[in-house]
């Protein structure tokens, strides 16, 4: 199995979260979360369904406001940012969300151009073409440039979705269940792509997954969220070499190889 490549991980933090709380009415989802992601690092967030993994990345992206705590992303305190500052910060964050669908009525080329043309003014046609060709090459799908999303496989659509975020040269990537619904070989290819993206774009990433093969293949560090807090953190082996019942049962239910 592919392991995360030996990539230099910085000492500077891309994301730093302290004492984060978030409730929805009586539902106390995050209860004192601390998390750091260093520059160039892939951090996998694990946890059972409904433990608040998506809420955590929505708070990081400024899509949800926390009740308490500090959330620093690229040295900016996210909950204090204005809408304009948030929009600027989000340009540096690539989102690969489960529902980040492509526009069905646009070709692959048009889908990829869309964020670039909307967010970067005064680009020439040849600069746009070059950017599209470069990201398609990065995800290994140059041949699909004139295809419609409906003509692509699930794995290809996922790759184009990732390419669409890469076109903005993000510093941070947030992957929410990147391998959900894909067959094992396509999962392995997406895991490799996540590692290649890090190599090529020097991104710092959070990868939310239930898929322990994905966690093992992509994570420099894993963090296990349980009952609103991180209960264990470390490499794959460090996290799972334990007699802790909650972690053992998570492993037994989720590891398929
Ligand atoms: N905007 C919201 N309003 C009310 N409740 C919410 C909201 N967003 C999330 N929740 C609740 O917070 C809890 C955590 O949701 P979240 O989507 O973060 O879970 P998750 O760990 O990502 O789960 P899964 O692995 O199933 O995607 C759930 O009980 C969910 O119903």
UniProtKB/TrEMBL annotation:
GO molecular function, a single term: ATP binding
Organism in which the protein naturally occurs: Rhabdobacter roseus
Pfam families tied to this protein: ABC_tran (PF00005)
Residue ranges constituting the ABC transporter domain according to the UniProt record: 15-252
Gene3D superfamilies: P-loop containing nucleotide triphosphate hydrolases (3.40.50.300)
Keywords (A to Z) from UniProt: ATP-binding, Nucleotide-binding, Transport
InterPro entries: AAA+_ATPase (IPR003593), ABC_transporter-like_ATP-bd (IPR003439), ABC_transporter-like_CS (IPR017871), P-loop_NTPase (IPR027417)
Source species taxonomy: Bacteria, Pseudomonadati, Bacteroidota, Cytophagia, Cytophagales
Origin superkingdom: Bacteria
Keyword ATP-binding annotated: yes
Protein name: Phospholipid/cholesterol/gamma-HCH transport system ATP-binding protein
